[in-house]
Design goal:
By secondary structure, the chain is an alpha+beta fold. It is built from 18 helices and 27 strands.
Length: 666
Amino acid sequence: LTGRCFKEHVVRGATWRHHHLGAVRLLPLRHRPRVLARANGKDDDDETNPDWDKEMSIFNKRISAPNQLETLRELEGSVNVGKVVYMQDNVAILSGLNSDAPFGTKIAFVTGGTGVLLWHRSENLAFALILGGAADITLGTHASCIIKGVLQVVDEVQGPVTKKEFELFESPAGADVFGSVLDFLGMSKIPGAAEVSQGACRPNMGKPVPLLNQQVTMMNREQVTEPLLTGVKALDVLTPVGRGCSMLVIGRKGSGKAALVEDAILGQRGTGVGVVLASINRTREELLALASRLEAAGALGHTAIVSAEPDAPLGKKFATLCTAYSIGERVRDNGGHALVILDDLSPLPNAWSTLALQGLGSLGQEVAREGLIKDPQGRDLILPSPKSDEELVDYEGMLISGAVAQRRGFFSTLFLRAAKMSRSLGGGSLSALIVVPGSPATGQAKRIDMDKYQTLSEEQKAKIKAALEKKMAEEQASQDSQLAEGEIATELVEEYISIADGQLVLDPPLSSPNSNGAAYRPNSRLSITRIGNRAYPKALDNLANKIRLSLVQADDARKFSASTDARTAKEEAKSQRLEAALLQQPGKPASLEEQVVTLLAVQSGFTDNVLPESMASFIAQAFDFVKEEAPQALEEVRSTQMLTATAEKGILDALATLQSSAKQTV
């Protein structure tokens, strides 16, 4: 048996021992351990007459591998058989799976179903998605992680050891997915595609990649320094998207998030950036309409749409988000640049709520607290009482409760897949634009004023304060209950903000003439980027910073100014023109040159006599005029993404000529 399992041959001076599960390289003879004869009074350092028989005997003991039966026994014993302890909507909690299996490991159920390991809650409990054969899986169904193979290596201390390689659940990510609409399995007939198992025919499969990938380590990342222009003036000016960062688009129902996403897709035409849209809850008709608009605009060829229909199970919706990231990661790892857009993030909090709150809660308090607190060696600690789930732990430099740390870590598995790779790994990037339905905190917390209760005793003050706090809590709960369908609570929005690299907050569009037909309106105060000026193109760096500062100062004056003098009125009028300049009609992404002309016109005073409701027509007229009068200046801005003194002078001279001709006409 051993002779059939192992074969030795010499390649490039090194001896290799082949096994049916792998290969082990034996050190060349000159590097093998030597046992020197000590007879006849020779020193240990005398290498002229070594005892080769004894030396080879010791060496063979160190490198001798287990025979095939021993390997198979170890393989069989290392596969833990778990079981389903909770299941709902194609997401499940399993106990007893391999704790060393990485996220994304393929899970096989005894019923023939297929799943993927999503998250290790503790050493014993794991969250999983059920992506095939869910109808046959019930509580108590046994399952195990699939092991792809066992690698045999020789450890200097332990001798021969084996390491398991788990099989990962794969998703489509080939180049042929662009220009098509598909589901997470690569089937092009969306929605209503029949459930298929891994390995079935997939017209748009391409070369598959893991559905869930680990976060890119800091050693393999580079600082975000390259801009990714979206064509959305609100994003490019207020919160620029750098290649490799994750940016949130936050807004309540009707704030124009869908229109902004579509403009961002159109803005990547001709840039070489591959766009992947994860579309959740769109109907078949809405999907076809979106694909038709993108195709008519020449943007479908660089766009892959991964879709889940509204009535799809939660597990498949979550897998749709993961597949979108996997396609983008394939582009990134090949040295390209990808923009992944999630138009609905609801599967993420819904999965956590279903598994961590409902699922674990139904298993009892003791099970629900498993894995919340770890010891210094990373082992689970059993919490002594129900209140211990609020025990503070150190998570990425923050002191938060164990429950919040678990939730934050779960959310980060999706958010932090955006990255800019180091040059040694190709320099590719994956940027994420994540739509969040809801609203952030305004930063204006209500405060209980106890100064007017000075005549009361401390006991009476305490009772009044408790009553007022209870009233405020009820009001907040009432506001949360009034959220529109699909919107999430402010608490979750704030948690997403703390993980992402920035956010663009949208207010409801104006119905007044000042709206200029715009479908979305940015909130300049609440919109923030943590990347800083590094994400701006050089042409917008100084111009955009001044715009943002002017808008924030005008907002402060509007809120806190006691009186309105001439200067305040002038600044308010300027801020209204600036806000109007950042609006744009849907379906018309703004090029870098157009944004430069717009900001120069506003900051240089060429729009001082333009009413806010007339800004859109003036900017369109001004840009067309500059294209005719100073085409070289615009071409320089476009090709270099810089605003040189020569280009700036050419644009300003053209705007001055336009202003003079307008005065003469009047």
